[in-house]
From TrEMBL:
Pfam families: FAD_binding_3 (PF01494). Keywords: FAD, Flavoprotein. The keyword Disulfide bond does not apply. Residues 2-343 form the FAD-binding domain. GO terms for molecular function: FAD binding; oxidoreductase activity, acting on paired donors, with incorporation or reduction of molecular oxygen, NAD(P)H as one donor, and incorporation of one atom of oxygen. PANTHER family: P-HYDROXYBENZOATE HYDROXYLASE (PTHR43004:SF3), TRK SYSTEM POTASSIUM UPTAKE PROTEIN (PTHR43004). InterPro entries: FAD-bd, FAD/NAD-bd_sf, RIFMO-like. The keyword Cell division does not apply. This is 4-hydroxybenzoate 3-monooxygenase.
Amino acid sequence: MRTTVGIIGAGPAGLLLARLLHNAGIDSVVLESRDRAYVEHRQRAGILEQGTVDVLRAAGAGERMDREGLRHDGIELRFAKRRHRVDFPGLTGGRSVMVYAQTEVCKDLIALQLKEGGPLLFEAEALAVEGADSESPLVRFRHEGREDVLECDYVVGCDGSWGVARKAIPEELTQVFERTYPFGWLGILADVPPSHDELVYAHHDRGFALLSMRSPQVSRLYLQVPEGTDAEEWTDEAIWDELERRFETADDWRLERGPITQKSVTPMRSYVHEPMRHGRLFLAGDAAHIVPPTGAKGLNLAVGDVVTFARALVHLKETGSAERLDAYSETCLRRVWQAERFSYAMTTLLHRTPGATPFEDRIQLARLDRITAARSAEQDLAECYTGFPLE
Ligand code: FAD
Ligand code: DHB
């Protein structure tokens, strides 16, 4: 098989890239190791930045998002039983975010790709990328029990944090920056209307908690838990009791309970692989960088990477100049590091770190106080949360 752009992975990065290339008249083939149902139901991100919303609309993939997504104009910070609303449009000159689940973004993009895009092969596992620094790189893959080869002009590794693409970049050219956190998130989906109409990020002595949603009928909630926690250790009742404690306020706010339909634990990690390009192999999304989920940046960064790649390739086709493609890694990394900084700051602001000293606890509260007291600090949070502009 031969194509212009070989895409490994049908997460949001790979699927959106295929769509952007299709719209620009550039052919691609997407290889995805899992089956369609798995990709469409993997419970992950829920918040789309303004820029991501604009990109999906412009790509012709925004119709259902505009119908069913929930525009959010702010979040609530909750600490010391106090509530503080951060007003996004007022602080950013009109920007907001959209609550629309990653599962739904993937469903929409898969439907479009199968209807009018190039090949999208499920249960097609990439085994290795070869010849990244040659004119014609290739992907070896296994599909329907047979090994095959995809010959490409370019390969984009959108294969997530455990993918194979980045292994094709020689170690001596690679630098990895990493940080792990001694806690994770226990996430639940529950069939109960969200107890608040905006997201609530709660700081508590017992640990962080987040109230989010998937629809007006379905709540998504997270609890900070110790690293290595097994979700089955937590009964449904214990989860609701703990959420209730951490969201407690001085007023009469109440957390509504309902049947829990899913629960799982996500570890927290910061990770950046530099460079994001080697020859004709490009890395995009979680394949190149991971952020802890506090601040909701992962999916949005993946979108930024593939937009940058698609624009650079179109620029090459239209002008003959490879300048933008050559600058891909540096261009993406500037944005990536801003998101790393913000996600790290939000994580350390809101979580309880085991072994933190009383001094550090007070500093954390002082940082929260600063956001509620100084417009400049609050504005910085609102600007970062609603998104970093694409270059
Ligand atoms: P992935 O979604 O991981 O997709 C990679 C794809 O490649 C997968 O389908 C995988 O099966 C496939 N693959 C892997 N190896 C191979 C191979 N060898 N061959 C073929 N295919 C392969 N981000 C946000 O922006 N906002 C949020 O609110 C948010 N919340 C989150 C909450 C949780 C609990 C978690 C876990 C993550 C959250 N994120 C959030 C992060 C976000 O989900 C990821 O950043 C996003 O999925 C990255 O997309 P991707 O396409 O790069 O990678
Ligand atoms: C969700 C996840 C996040 O990491 C976040 O900061 C906000 C919302 C969510 O899954 O809804």
